[in-house]
């Protein structure tokens, strides 16, 4: 029984990994469940044992994104107690994604938008698409709070920083220009340094 459960868990992991990759490279609308099953080397019929619909798979993929980014933020926290240094590490990590985001866009933003437009999704499942962004913004707000901003100002500063990052990714992706992403990031970094946050 345990061996069977392990195999089932491994297949699910493969399907989520394949879904994560294909939703990013082909888009949510461009990747079918059959595509995902083939990419994961799982029989097409096997995918329905784990995910009844593509929307269900999207939930699992978004949860994987959440786990990945939460781990990255936790790693930043483990490296330093200084909120300014944490913000620098966050910004540096985002800047390293310029080439990938110029080519493919942000996987979380794209999937979140597609999930919101999927008529097959029940309304009460929609908060799933917000999880990564909400967690990241709250984490950023925590850093600004430790720098002395009150809760409201910290949330605004965090949302502004996150929006600048996502805006740079979106514009850079549309124009296919990684250097533009880097330029926007540098400009925002200069602003943050002058304000004393980096």
TrEMBL record:
<keyword id="KW-0238">DNA-binding</keyword>
<keyword id="KW-0804">Transcription</keyword>
<feature type="DNA-binding region" description="H-T-H motif">
    <location>
        <begin position="32"/>
        <end position="51"/>
    </location>
</feature>
<keyword id="KW-0805">Transcription regulation</keyword>
<dbReference type="InterPro" id="IPR009057">
    <property type="entry name" value="Homeodomain-like_sf"/>
</dbReference>
<protein>
    <submittedName>
        <fullName>TetR family transcriptional regulator</fullName>
    </submittedName>
</protein>
<dbReference type="Pfam" id="PF00440">
    <property type="entry name" value="TetR_N"/>
</dbReference>
<feature type="domain" description="HTH tetR-type">
    <location>
        <begin position="9"/>
        <end position="69"/>
    </location>
</feature>
<dbReference type="InterPro" id="IPR036271">
    <property type="entry name" value="Tet_transcr_reg_TetR-rel_C_sf"/>
</dbReference>
<dbReference type="InterPro" id="IPR001647">
    <property type="entry name" value="HTH_TetR"/>
</dbReference>
<dbReference type="GO" id="GO:0003677">
    <property type="term" value="F:DNA binding"/>
</dbReference>
């Amino acid at each position: 029984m345990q061996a069977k459960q392990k195999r089932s868990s491994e297949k699910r992991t493969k399907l989520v990994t394949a879904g994560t990759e294909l939703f990013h490279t082909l888009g949510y609308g461009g990747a079918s469940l059959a595509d995902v099953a083939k990419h994961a080397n799982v029989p097409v019929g096997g995918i329905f044992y784990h995910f009844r619909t593509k929307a269900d798979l999207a939930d699992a993929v978004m949860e994987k994104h959440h786990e990945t980014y939460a781990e990255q933020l936790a790693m930043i926290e483990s490296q330093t107690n200084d909120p300014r240094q944490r913000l620098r590490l966050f910004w540096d990590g985002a800047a390293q994604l310029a080439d990938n985001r110029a080519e493919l866009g942000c996987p979380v933003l794209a999937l979140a938008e597609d999930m919101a437009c999927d008529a097959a999704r029940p309304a009460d499942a929609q908060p799933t698409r917000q999880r990564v962004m909400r967690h990241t913004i709250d984490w950023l707000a925590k850093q600004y709070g430790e720098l002395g901003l009150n809760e409201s100002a910290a949330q605004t500063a965090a949302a502004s920083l996150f929006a600048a990052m996502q805006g740079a990714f979106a514009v850079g992706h549309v124009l296919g220009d990684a250097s533009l992403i880097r330029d926007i990031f540098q400009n925002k970094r200069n602003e943050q340094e002058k304000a004393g946050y980096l």
